[in-house]
Amino acid sequence: MQWKVKFFDYPLQFNAHEEEYIEIIRGVLSRGAFILGEDLEKFEGKFAEFVGSKFAVGVSCCTDAMLLSLYAAGVGPGDEVISVSHTFVATIEVIKFLGAKTVFVDIADDHNMDVDLVESAITPRTKAIIPVHLNGRICSKMDKLAALAEKYNLAVIEDAAQALGATYRGKDAGTFGLSGCFSFYPAKLLGTFGDAGAVVTDDEAFAEKVRMLRNHGRGKGTDINLWGLNCRMDNLHAAILDFKLPGLGDRIKRRREIAASYHNGLSGIKELRLPPPPVEDDGHYDVFQNYEIEAERRDELMSYLRENGVEVVVQWGGKGVHQFKALGLDGFNLPRTEFFFKKALLLPLYPELGDEQVLYVVQKIREFYG
Ligand SMILES: Cc1ncc(COP(=O)(O)O)c(C=O)c1O
């Protein structure tokens, strides 16, 4: 299919700075410094500063960022972790692999964790909470969640894979709890040419533990201080991310511009429910990792758009994590999550998208609903 509007366009990102990327890669290769080097430390320092955290630890992906965070927070067999089913399976698989149990709460109007449901889900076995900031918007009521965590002595590990640069009441995604976990997967707000991730925290001892865990339990020398894994971020990725980080603010602005165009173009179609527009008077600075609408006759709309060259996507195949039978997580009553997945559709949104392409998408949606 020759798309008129692709869902994501990786070559466009590379082509825009081809010479610089080749130079960066040449630099790392010619120095022969691939693992745990200067490039990684430099990026970690700048990344921590960008997010507003004291420490950042570069790891292999956001999944590992969450795995190591939960482990470092002491989560293990028999513990419970509260999270949402409206997320990528990564958030939940790490809980499973530590031998702990996921307790799901349903989503609120903003499609993120309904914080008002959390207190009644806490039991004596609860050890941690993972709120997920989906589509670039921080889960509302994070201040209430932080207060609950303090009251019950629980660790908050934020899944901020989709929310780098987002703020809520002036505070950055990833800075509300014990740790924030980020993804640099290619399609993410700050993407590299492969997999990478980071943990941010203000807790020095926790940062040091995650740093050792990502490197086979080693500290500075060759001594093994604890059981660990290999979850390091390569210097190649660190150097690329370091180059891209200063441009992130502008790329987020462009995302917000596109979101505003979608909002203006699609407002008034009664069969659609749109995400909140990019205003700031509601306390949110939304970075629009995705533009996810809820649509009546969603599957028909999807076919119509795809036939007309617009590559739209249903996130995660249209299922909450608890709905994947093979995972054995059924038995939860999450009506809002399940209802949302029946209607949700992602429209293309990335900084390289042209205004005329956005208008084309709007025009085709308007045409569909007549
Ligand atoms: C909400 C969410 N959490 C976690 C992840 C996992 O990130 P990674 O691929 O870097 O492990 C993703 C990636 O798609 C995600 O969207």
What does this 3D model show about the protein?
The two termini are 25 Å apart. This protein is an alpha/beta fold and 370 residues long. It has a seven-stranded mixed sheet, sandwiched between helices. It folds into two domains: 11-246, 3-Layer(aba) Sandwich (Aspartate Aminotransferase, domain 2), CATH 3.40.640.10; 248-369, Aspartate Aminotransferase, domain 1 (Alpha-Beta Complex), CATH 3.90.1150. The mean pLDDT is 97. The protein has helices at 10-16, 18-31, 38-51, 62-72, 90-97, 118-121, 142-152, 204-213, 235-244, 248-266, 298-307, 335-343, 355-369, and strands spanning 55-59, 80-84, 101-105, 126-129, 155-159, 167-168, 171-172, 179-183, 197-201, 272-273, 284-285, 291-295, 344-347. Strand 6 (167-168) and strand 7 form a beta hairpin. It is globular and about 70 Å long. The structure holds pyridoxal-5'-phosphate. Pyridoxal-5'-phosphate binds next to helix 4 and helix 5.
List the helices and strands and how they pair.
Layout: H1 10-16, H2 18-31, H3 38-51, E1 55-59, H4 62-72, E2 80-84, H5 90-97, E3 101-105, H6 118-121, E4 126-129, H7 142-152, E5 155-159, E6 167-168, E7 171-172, E8 179-183, E9 197-201, H8 204-213, H9 235-244, H10 248-266, E10 272-273, E11 284-285, E12 291-295, H11 298-307, H12 335-343, E13 344-347, H13 355-369
Parallel strand pairs: 2-3, 2-4, 4-5, 5-8
Antiparallel strand pairs: 1-9, 6-7, 6-11, 8-9, 10-12, 12-13
Pyridoxal-5'-phosphate (PLP) is lined by residues 61-63, 87-88, 90-91, 132, 159, 161-162, 183, 185, 195, 197.
